[in-house]
Amino acid sequence: MTLFIRKSKYFHQKEKMMDSRTILRNFKISSLIFFVLLLSIIGYSQKEWSLTDCINYAIENNIEIKQSEINTATYEINLQQSKLDLIPSLNASTSQSYGWGRSINYANYTYSKTIRQNYFQLSSNVTVFQGFQKSNTIKQNSYDYMASQFDSDEMRDNISVRLAYAYLQILYSHEILDVAVNQVEVTNQQINRTQKLVDAGTLAKGSLLEIQSQGAQEEVNAIMSRNNLNLAYLDLLQLLDLPASERFEIVKPNLEVTEEPQLLKPEEVYSYAVMNRPQILSAEYRVKSSDRGLAIAKGLRSPSLQLSGGWNTRYSNREMKTTIQGMDTITSVIPFGEQFNDYQDKNISISLNIPIFNGYQTSSNISRAKLNTRYAENNLELEKNTLRKSIEQAYSDAIAAYKAYNATIKSVKSFQEAFKYTEQKFNVGMVNAVEYNLAKSRLVQAESELLQAKYDFVFKKKILDFYMGIPLEFLKK
Fold first, then answer.
1. What pLDDT sits at residue 20?
2. What is the pTM of this model?
3. Which of 30, 124, 292, 449 lies 20 to 30 Å from 472, alpha-carbon distance?
4. pLDDT digits (tens, 9 = 90+) for 21-37
5. 110 in a domain, yes or no?
């Protein structure tokens, strides 16, 4: 009976311990599930950036673009001010003065010991004619404003192209990393097979050492590829002005090259681009602005006609008047309102200014304006030539990259077959590790060249599309 009781207590305690362990295990499992779900939610909530997202973010936040917008706003203010300069000016002034001792009263030109005087004045001026300088200034500022807008557009385009290149560099680095990791896995498998062959006496130990050395080198290559990928992400983050610590992933679009590209001829692309690219339009407006600058300089030779008007009055505490009341003569200061009305003076004038000789300043200004016009015209031709050369270069690069891509596909297939055959011979001891590693290195080199040709073609084709006004974007998988 006692033994039964003791056993009952033992099983009861054991059952309690088992319940505690079960609860603890269930708690750990629940916590693990919660943690995994939390990581999944965090990973899911992390946004993947497409190229369009990157471009839109940069346009809204890039400092260089903001600076260009500020510059455009400055030109807009200049344009508004040149229009307002056509309005007549109107100015008012007043002054009050005190004098002690022997002070002159300018109201009646007498001397007084203490005097207080007030003056009030309004004046207006308008330019009737000035060699059309003001109207030309409005046109010049209008052209400068339009040119600055296109300069801002060009800044956006340059940022977009740089972002596209950085985006493609990340995709390229991803694929290079995949190739490097795959090669590490293949080599590790071969190391295991070689170890077994060496243990069985089929291969010499030197072959194992060669394979192990190749494996170590490929691990280094994988590490370097990982570092290049990180650097590619860093370049894109810096273009976006985001900190390096930002959690950032990009969308991996479908960039397969499957058919013969339909590329427009360079002259067709140029015909469209020269009429629409912002750098060309900006240069054209700079030429128009310089023409207006020349017209302004020539306007200095013309007579100018101005119309002006004014009104003024005054008050003095020493302006006296004498009145007779009965037998008494009373002298008193003329009241402020009476002086204000009595001493009003109004005037209007027309002035004509005819330039005769001013030290050849006008001629010098005209000469400088002509040189500015020539400079603007040359800059326009330079921009057109640069655009044409860029299009021709992009077209040639795209064609060459596509041909290299197709040729490299054949090369990769050949090297794959060669490596497969060499690997089979190596496994039975017919070739040594040096020949095996050489075949594998050639395959890796061919795969890298294939990826390089692929992304070079994609980028150059996108540049040609961009010159045709097609937005920079990639289709998602």
1. 46
2. 0.76
3. 449
4. 444 444 444 444 444 34
5. no
CATH code of residue 203 = 1.20.1600.10
- Structural domain of 162: 51-87+130-302+355-467
Tokens of 114: 């203490």
Q: At what angle do helices 51-61 and 63-84 cross, to 10 degrees?
A: 50
Contacts of 221 (CB under 8 A, 6+ apart): 180, 183
At 109, the pLDDT band (50, 70, 90 cuts) reads: low
Strand-pairing partners, residue 127, are: 306
The closest alpha carbon to 166, from 64, 237, 256, belongs to 237
Is 16's pLDDT higher than 70? no
Residue 242 lies in a domain: yes
pLDDT digits (tens, 9 = 90+) for 188-220: 887 887 788 778 777 778 778 888 888 888 899
What Cα–Cα distance (Å) separates residue 98 from each residue in 121, 168, 194, 312, 333?
A: 18, 79, 112, 19, 16
User: Looking at this protein, which amino acid is placed at residue 390?
Assistant: S
Residue 82 domain-assigned?
yes
Would residue 102 count as lying in a domain?
Answer: no
Domain count, the chain: 1
